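User: Let's play a game. I give you a shape written as tokens, and you guess the letters that built it. Ready? Here's round one.
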């Protein structure tokens, strides 16, 4: 199987990403998604065989393999249970190791899928630097059960989260579905359309009936295989749903 390829602006010395806007992260996620799934119009990304589909990468000219483990409990370097980790060890210099806490996440398909997608973000954006420089014998990034402020605002985690969101709910597909939802339900619109998705309307979340909002979030979440709250966040990130306060759709 051919490696998954990707490219983005990066440091010539460290291979770390440089000045990646959300739009650029979305573009990388879209490119990777098209290689993971043959049907570009299929909303629910099939990650059932991720160990095979995402076993080889070539990012910014750096080639490496990915060894997956989805069967065991996962703990970080501080011995805390976590949802997943992506790590590099010089004992396997041509590979990155990804461990997903299958026993803990098996009861929640949506959380399992989002964790896999998040770790893929680390594989794409962080792994090339680890392998190209090889300055450390061991490097690990972990997805915490309850991330604190430091983790939430860590650039690596913010980037992986944005990649995850765009991988599972791509802007081009959501634009089509949102247009259909807005017209069918005659949703209240903001004066200006989305400033991020060309040609897409922005809904005034403050004027949206909570029950209608919940039904729409649930319907879209079933379509994409994520949670209703995940959909709400993506709509906000794409400037398709504007709320003056936290939404109360669930």
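Assistant: Ready! My guess for every position:
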């Amino acid at each position: 199987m051919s490696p998954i390829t990707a490219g983005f602006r990066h440091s010539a010395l460290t291979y770390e990403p440089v000045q990646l806007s959300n739009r650029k992260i979305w573009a990388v996620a879209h490119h990777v998604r098209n290689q993971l799934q043959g049907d570009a119009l299929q909303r629910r990304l099939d990650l059932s065989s991720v160990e095979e589909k995402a076993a080889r990468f070539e990012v910014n000219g750096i080639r490496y393999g990915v060894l997956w483990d989805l069967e065991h409990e996962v703990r970080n370097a501080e011995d805390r249970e976590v949802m997943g980790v992506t790590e590099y060890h010089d004992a396997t210099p041509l590979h990155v190791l990804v461990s997903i806490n299958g026993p803990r996440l098996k009861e929640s398909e949506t959380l399992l899928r989002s964790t896999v997608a998040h770790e893929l973000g680390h594989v794409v954006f962080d792994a090339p630097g680890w392998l190209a420089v090889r300055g450390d014998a061991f490097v690990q990034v972990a997805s915490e059960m309850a991330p604190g402020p430091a983790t939430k605002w860590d650039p690596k985690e913010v980037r992986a989260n944005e990649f995850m969101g765009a991988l599972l709910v791509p802007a081009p597909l959501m634009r089509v579905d949102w247009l259909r939802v807005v017209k069918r339900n005659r949703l209240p619109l903001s004066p200006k359309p989305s400033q991020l998705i060309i040609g897409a309307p922005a809904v005034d979340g403050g004027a949206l009936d909570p029950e209608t909002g919940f039904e729409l979030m649930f319907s879209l979440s079933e379509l994409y295989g994520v949670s209703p709250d995940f959909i709400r966040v993506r709509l906000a990130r794409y400037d398709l749903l504007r709320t003056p306060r936290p939404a109360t759709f669930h």
